[in-house]
Amino acid sequence: MTAAIIIDGKEVAKSIRQGLRPRIAKLKENEIVPGLAAVLVGDNPASQTYVNSKAKACDKLGMYSEVIRKPASLSQEELIEIVEGLNANRKIHGILVQSPLPEQIDEPEVTVHLSPEKDVDGFHPFNVGQMLIGRGKLLPCTPHGIIKLLEYYEISTEGKEAVVVGRSNIVGKPVAVLLMQKGKMANATVTIAHSRTSNLREVCGRADILIAAIGRANFINADMVKEGAVVIDVGINRIDDPNREKGYRLVGDVDFESVKEKASYITPVPGGVGPMTIAMLLSNTVTAAENIGC
Fold first, then answer.
1. Is residue 56 annotated as a catalytic residue, yes or no?
2. Catalytic site residue 76?
3. Residues 194-220: what's their mean pLDDT?
4. Which of 176, 239, 245, 283 reaches 20 to 30 Å from 18, CA-CA?
5. Could you give all domains of the chain from N- to C-terminal order, each with its CATH number?
6. Cα–Cα distances in Å, from 293 out to 91, 214, 282, 287?
7. Mean pLDDT on 235-245
8. Of 118, 119, 121, 148, which residue is the catalytic one?
9. Is-catalytic flag, 98?
């Protein structure tokens, strides 16, 4: 078997952004400029980079964006006050509270105070419930991005056995829900596996579509992958590399070099799932602006 086809997340994300342009233009005809606000608490370098990337992406599409930066000492009450102010701000259609948050802040409690209409991360209980019953409009960005990757490469999910390794509220659970729905790019038989799963190697080896989101560098190796499987790597892990200028390099949860010789399709890290998260955030913001209409 030849080496796997590389799923280019940058290419797919570019296609999605291009598809947003006519929708943004139509909104502007009605004097609506889609607006995204990101709230950054603390000085986490990865979070700062991520938020800056979102602001630049908005600017390139002619969307409005603002970043609210607050010190790590910010109280939960102060953060909720900021969120409620953004709920009432007519220029803002999407609100993102960047994770991770300082330990004094209860993240789920903050999420509950977001207006569901502006919850472009798709984590508000209302939006999670809508997703669960197949009526979600604002879907979690990374899971929805994974579905869009499969769709772009015309990878069928119908009747396929999908294994999701990881059970986080951000990726594992929602992507499992999306894959098991009735409808296009769904109808899969889904297993959620995790660190406590017995015979994890055997479970992964059954997968036609394997989604790795466990947060362990190079955890999934070729012995755990079925011949011809589609492998989606959500992980982003830093490992030491003295040969790199920064002293480290990024790898996924999948041992890319060994697995690519066995899989039919595979996402790289970086450049696979990552670019899709921002693209779907922009898409959700435009959808929110269309729904809110002000």
1. no
2. no
3. 96
4. 176
5. 31-135 (3.40.50.10860), 139-274 (3.40.50.720)
6. 11, 38, 16, 10
7. 88
8. 121
9. yes
